[in-house]
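[Automated response] Your request has been received and processed.

Submitted sequence:
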Amino acid sequence: MSPWKAAEPGDRLEAVDTPALVLDLDAFERNLQRMADSLKGRQVRLRPHAKCHKTPEIALRQIALGAVGICCQKVSEAAVFVAAGVGDVLVTNQVMGATKLRRLMELARRARMGVLVDHPLQVQALAAAARAHSVTLDVYVEVDVGAQRCGVAPGAEAAQLARQVAASPPLRFAGLQCYHGPAQHLRTPQERALAIGNAVEQVRLSREAIEGCAIAVERITGAGTGTFWHERDSGVYNELQAGSYVFMDRDYGDNQHGDGDIVFEHALFVRTTVMSRSTAERAVVDAGLKASSVDSGLPTVWKRPELRYAKAADEHGVIMTPDAAALSLGDALLLVPGHCDPTVNLYDELVCLRGDRVEALWPIAARGALL
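Generated structure:
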């Protein structure tokens, strides 16, 4: 943790120390409203993924606009949001280990908690822990609809696991988790539509197999920022887990848009300062690997297409410029991070800007919550 803050409320943008993670509140609020508007009048609800922002203030604003709760990826992450007053959390992950199970059950005494399974031994462990702690737990069967990560095979295998959950009180079979992560960044709208169309057929097959066992499938949840309108309109999904829409990043920005796509704005930036002009073509900024995640590629320089962020070291970012006069020592730039989720996890707080002035600092309270 830094010994001092990058800014204080009331500061002007030019006074924000660097590197800092800054949020354009106007763009962020438009993104929140655009998502809420996209679901008005539909029997599809929003449960946004908080692993993106890790910030209770944002989760509470999403809920105020109609979200039913949030998703988290880790039990410790969920604990931060429950402590902040979020009363409905789905851990979109499998949870194994006595310590994690105990902590999950403790949370289930304070909030409605859900969790995923894709193996019979997970069901047995969850049921034993829930009985020991006298709590009820929502359990979703995760189905692999194309991500090739976690999840059972669609159809009969999903039905078999659902039967086990339904027969294991105090567990409650809540439905299916069906998230196609790789589809979010297929670049053309045609590729994304085809991938989700195939996923929907696998979901439908699984639902029919479970209903054939006289088990109701109340909830089918999934979807992400790059495809959620396809799941929304599928007639199969009835809950959406999009998360990155609040911020957007360079990777999502690289997607090509189709006529029916819902487009959000870049709202999250890394503010950085030119600290070296070692050659006429090269400037070095103070935002490197420890300031912006590059797992999905390098950041871009906001509204400066003539500048190229070329490479990153631990504490240095190299900016290439064809114009020696384009950058001077001390100049500040805004970077659009390649991947917002792990970038957020590098910072203690969001510096929230309204125009050119700092309006608030929001703690990224679930930063580092990996357990």
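Summary generated for your ticket: The two ends are 19 Å apart (CA to CA). The mean pLDDT is 97.
If you did not submit this request, please reply to this message.
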